[in-house]
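hey can u run this one w/ nicotinamide-adenine-dinucleotide bound, need the structure tokens asap thx
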Amino acid sequence: MADYDFDVLVIGSGPGGYVAAIRAAQLGLKTACAESRETLGGTCLNVGCIPSKALLHASELFEEATSGKLAKLGIKTPTVELDLEAMHAQRIDAVKGLTGGIEFLFKKNKVEWLKGHATFTGKDSVKVGDREVRAKNIVIATGSSVTPLPGVEIDQKVVVDSTGALELPKVPEHLVVIGGGVIGLELGSVWRRVGAKVTVVEFLDQLLPGMDGEVRKEAGKLFKKQGMTLKLSTKVTGVQVNGDKATLTVEPSAGGAAETIEADAVLVSIGRRPNTSGLGLEAAGLSTNQRGQIEIDHDFRTSVPGIWAIGDVVPGPMLAHKAEDEGIAVAENIAGLTGIVNHDVIPSVVYTWPEISGVGLTEEQARERTEVKIGKFPMVGNSRAKTNHEPDGWVKVIADAKSDRVLGVWMIASVAGTMIAQAAQAMEFGATSEDIAYTCHAHPTHSEAFKEAAMAVQGKPIHI
Ligand code: FAD
Ligand code: NAD
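ok here u go:
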């Protein structure tokens, strides 16, 4: 230790980095975390998970009042008005509270925050601002940034990325979303609920790539029903900005006649790419793969001893909870313990209404690997969902035909994001569909739909 300033230096304070730093400190290691942003918490807390959920929650309540949903429950709201400034203020407040919370946790755990951009100067040395430090272990947790669309300039006024879309000062009349993935659908939902006409232009023939095929089809139907215009199998070939308006040129993905769409806001949400530029990877003897990611082994070690990497900058889904779990595991591995993340059981959630979630294999992936049994149960048959006027969606359980072990679970339901935790835990414990079917579930809860879907694998649900 004598030669080193720290046992562990974490670069980046997102969900991967801050969790790694806190766990390393908890394990008795002298730890620092470099962060170039003004506040801790990374993409997720500053411009990602948290601010988007603040707007999703507020806009959902607004729509409940304006759509007549509350009136159906006997709650009259004759004068509902949007105060966008106040909606933004509560978003900013949520971010401030949580990023400040990480600063408090750093102090409590004696993690030193090195403020500034970090650049490797050697295999165990990093320059942060004017200060050069040496660390026995360095964890790269630099996260990801928006993938640009060639030829389309993001001005954060008319053409915005997800950060700009969180901060629009007024409701656009027509928002065109380029990319029908998670960000496009979540932020598109926010602005549709508060009054924008929303068109989603998606290159592929379905929304939400990577999710179960049936989920993707159903999602398309639901978002259309909610009033979004979906232009699938369509690519944007250009965006021309004139003052406060934009004209998009689009054509079929497979080629064909071009058409134009007028918009007063354009959201570019075609994916995210790892942050490695300006990190000085070459000085550390590291390089990236073709996708710009840093390759790691099972224990999060890079090819250079003493340098580790986690989160969005390494291969795998770009999700905050995956980054967090990797943060705990990498710190435990550095401390000589056994840190493991089961990458086969990482849930994913789209926080729209209804919510969409999944864990494990899609039906397509499962069928490719083995013979499967499928159980499905509609939310319209669930007493709680029905009583709450939330009939949309279903739960699908995919089990191995021979062993009955659950291989994947997919859900579309108002609270699917909360319900999926139970599926992930069941799969982590190696549950069969019969285990779930014979587990007593409280009544009346949405979770009973999961039990019934598991019963449907056995061919005997009760309420349908
Ligand atoms: P990040 O959170 O990106 O943090 C990396 C940090 O490193 C940044 O603060 C950056 O400033 C810093 N940094 C980078 N390079 C350097 C350097 N050289 N020196 C110093 N500091 C550096 N995921 C979910 O699971 N659920 C959600 O609901 C969700 N919603 C999202 C909504 C939006 C709009 C967006 C954009 C993303 C969302 N995500 C969500 C994805 C989630 O934010 C990421 O998966 C997660 O933040 C990745 O964590 P990370 O620690 O790897 O990196
Ligand atoms: P994404 O990969 O989810 O979706 C991008 C979409 O854009 C895809 O459907 C793709 O086919 C489409 N696309 C790509 N190029 C296109 C083009 N030229 N024209 C039209 N469509 C095009 O990416 P995202 O929505 O930007 O989200 C980025 C990451 O952030 C995701 O990996 C996601 O995991 C994460 N995220 C997660 C959550 C959550 O967990 N709720 C929320 C937001 C973001």
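The mean pLDDT is 97. anyway lmk if its weird
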